[in-house]
Amino acid sequence: MGANKVLNEVINKVTQAVIERSGTSRQAYLEKIRRAHRPGVSRSHLSCGNLAHGFAASDTHDKSALAIDRAANFAIVSAYNDMLSAHQPFQDYPAQIKEAARELGAVAQFAGGVPAMCDGVTQGREGMELSLFSRDNIAMAAGVALSHDMFDGVLCLGVCDKIVPGLAIGALAFGHLPCLFVPAGPMESGLPNAEKSRIRQLYAEGKVGRAELLKAESESYHSAGTCTFYGTANSNQMLMEIMGMQLPGSSFINPGTPMREAMTRAAVATLNKLSPLSPDFMPLGEMIDEKSIINGIIGLLATGGSTNHTIHLVAIARAAGVIINWQDMAELSEVVPLLCRIYPNGLADVNHFQAAGGMPLLIKELLDNGLLHNDVGTVAGKGGMQRYCEEPFLGDDGELVWRTGPAVSLDPEIIASVAKPFSKEGGLRLMQGNLGRSVIKTSAVKPEYRVLTAPAVIFNDQDEMKARFDSGDLNRDFIAVVRFQGPKANGMPELHKLTPLLGVLQDRGYKVALVTDGRMSGASGKVPAAIHLSPEALDGGPIARLRDGDMIEFDAERSILRVLDEAVLEQPVAIYAGGHQEGMGRELFSCFRKLVSDAEHGASVMDV
User: Which long-range contacts (CB under 8 A, 24 or more apart) does 466-473 make?
Assistant: First the structure.
């Protein structure tokens, strides 16, 4: 049914606008990757000396296969490290992938590792100021790994916040090659996220100590796998699947299970079918187009995903020559309903989402109601997104097969229908006014908190708020303006330290909101937050002219963000105190702060 459903008029209009806007850049990108493609295996164009270096350390079997020009060679680009729970499972993937490749008469080589930092470890710390920039660093590292020109396809092993977007950007630079993303899956459910959040707020109020807080955090984040709340990491997995870059149903299978290993091996077999030696050859850059990117935005809206992707999706799209902006996202949000309640937008975690029907059900519901492009290329081959309505299972003989997924939600409190959505819109809005442009995710914010007019309280550093909170000075209605947090100033760190403080004040009955040129998005929740404000303070943004007491209208229902007194915009610009230029590796990224684009252009240092 979904393949034949007429596409929603607004989705079609936005898509056509993106196609028209991207005409020149998309054509230039396609011409670039077509020039890079050469018949046969890539290594056949290397000299004997080049090739000898490329397989010198291989075992006898792989060396023999690489010495001839009839076996595909696949690059493994991995974000493995054993400190971060989401990426620790990748330790065993290369051996599994190499074995699966040999069984197919192909070869897989570990081409390179990319950095993998965790916002959960660095939040509130100096290291968080490297986080956003690590995305472009990862893209560059992936490029270095693939620069040896030995490979006929790419397997990207990554899960978390900046890592998947960085790998996607790097892979698209080598868009003449086919590529699959291979996830690791979420950890099993631990302490409920809502209880963890409650303990955090009690700690912020001084009602529990560090021991109680650490116990709650450890019971929540307790084993290998992705954190179970629906932040940027799990939004990444949803995106890769709904954009056709992962196998159907692969996003939320727990690590260390027979199904997870079977899916990893299936990824190798799928890549082999897409290689230049196959009649079904499908390079990544040809596969990912304007409709694929629009599908990603739709998935983000329908699931209430991380607003970090209002930055990352822009950067990924530009890497494929596709130009999108926040206006596109806002227009799509008006017609794409919110179909999922996953923490922080609800009480369920991603394991509960998977049990309720997961991605196959979500995609079916969108297709059946004309809310998703079906006619797109995917790694699953012919059939478009309809293939992604299927779910994997293991037969009695252990063989992996796909069957028709669930037709209705197994828990309507977690996955709703288009007929009875949690909200008729996606909850992502573009806030505009005399302070600039920003985004807000309203899906977790109750309607009564979405509109307020209140005096600004200015902070030039997030740590300043804690002192004001502890003094009792913030027990009132106000709008916290946290500035000099943009990419040019300090790398645009997540401001999660503010979440418990603002949550406590809201629970005390005060009307509060956040306005910032920084990020607080992966785990954004019940407090209204206009984030990614552009232009940022250090780039001459009006936010740098605000003072304590300036009255701000914050209206998420009408998408308005403005200071009421226009004369405020003539006040002198605040002086940036700096102090974020060195230590914890920050001096290594000084060139990034100088070159970075604004948030709506992807906050990127790369000219793509």
Answer: 466/497, 466/501, 469/204, 469/501, 469/504, 469/505
